[in-house]
Amino acid sequence: MNFLSFLDEQNPPAGHKTVTPPKVRSPQWNFNDFSFESPNPDATENNVFRRAYLVGLSLLFPEGERFFIRAVKRYADQISDPQLKKDVKSFIAQEAQHGRQHELLNEKIFGSRYDVDSFLKNWTGFAFGFLEKFSEKYLPYGGGKLEVAVTAAAEHFTATWGAAALKSESFAKFDSQSIKDLIYWHAIEEIEHKHVAFDVMREVDANYFLRTGAMVITAFLIGGLSVWGFAHIFRQEKNIDWGQVIRALGYESFDKDGMFRQFAVAFVTYFKPNFHPSDMDDKALFDEFASLVDERVQKVA
Ligand SMILES: [Fe+2]
Ligand SMILES: [Fe+2]
Questions:
Q1: Which of 75, 86, 112, 300 is the least buried, fewest Cβ under 10 Å from its Cβ?
Q2: How far is the CA of 157 from the centre of ligand 2 (A)?
Q3: In angstroms, rounded to a whole number, what is the distance separating the alpha carbons of residues 33 and 175?
Q4: What is the distance between the alpha carbons of residues 24 and 125, in angstroms, rounded to a whole number?
């Protein structure tokens, strides 16, 4: 045993439990009930900050999730654990569905009000036209292990944000039922498959420095891209209530369930030796929303 053995991730402590194996649902929302200005003054639709935040993230999802699929698929044939093999298939199917639903929302609804095309072109060009290719050619572990480790870290963020979204008062206040359904559906599936990319990474290379190094890169990327997406939408808004913006920013930064604060928590906890995403216990929250989501998805499948 040497002094760095606490960083040895070959034999992580047993007992990690996933909520349930990921299950593939196929909702078909058309988002016709969404309107940018709701007659209800408390509706989240009317909150310019939250709207820009939702649109910005939604524009990142489809191609971001396709990158996660590419990263995990590369190793699909090398996985020895039979349950993980199944979970990888469900992970790919779930992410593909998320991409399709967000793409529809982006094109049909958000694209009718905002210029979304230039942002989509610029961010995907930067991330996949340049960065992904650069990583494959020049970065240590690039073209395989690094991408799967980045995906594992990104999935830790999406699962943490998923849990925060289920608890968020502002998301509950969307008037549009289909937007709420989409958010809750995406959120519970992120929790459901939060272990998949991580366990694939661990089968490929259980290495503390690869894992946490990829987390640093991912935090910069997700943080930077979400600010970029938000800014692109927010600067297209005209009637901005700055008091409302400051209140929303304060909540997301300082409330214990705020998205920015949760981002920081997710980042810090990932550095714990032998960390596993299932250490974050969101089972009760998942159970509460999963049955609701299944019921809603049935209605639009
Ligand atoms: Fe997703
Ligand atoms: Fe995911």
A1: 112
A2: 9
A3: 8
A4: 30
Q: Of the bound ligands, which one is closest to the alpha carbon of residue 97? A: 1
φ, ψ dihedrals at 98, nearest 5°: -60, -45
Quote the ligand 2 centre to 153 CA distance (angstroms): 10
Phi and psi at 207, nearest 5°, equal -135, 115
* pLDDT category of residue 37 using cuts at 50, 70 and 90: confident
What integer is the mean pLDDT of 120-134? Answer: 97
Helix (H, G, I), strand (E, B) or coil at 275: coil
10, pLDDT greater than 80: no
How many angstroms is it from 274 CA to the middle of ligand 1?
Answer: 24
187-210 confidence digits (pLDDT tens): 999 999 999 999 999 999 999 999
Three-state secondary structure string covering 217-250 = HHHHHHHHHHHHHHHHHHCCCCCCCHHHHHHHHH
Distance 151 CA to ligand 2 centre (A): 9
Instruction: Please name every residue paired with 8 in a beta bridge, in sequence order, or none if there are none.
Output: 207
Task: Count the alpha carbons within 13 Å of 168 in the hemisphere toward its beta carbon.
Answer: 27
- What does each C-alpha distance from 248 to 47, 87, 263 come to in angstroms? 9, 36, 16
- CA 260 – CA 300 distance, rounded (Å): 32
Across-strand partners of 207?
A: 8
Name the nearest CA neighbour of 244 among 56, 54, 49: 49
Please give the C-alpha separations between residue 192 and each of 7, 34, 36, 162, 178, in angstroms, as whole numbers. 27, 27, 31, 10, 21
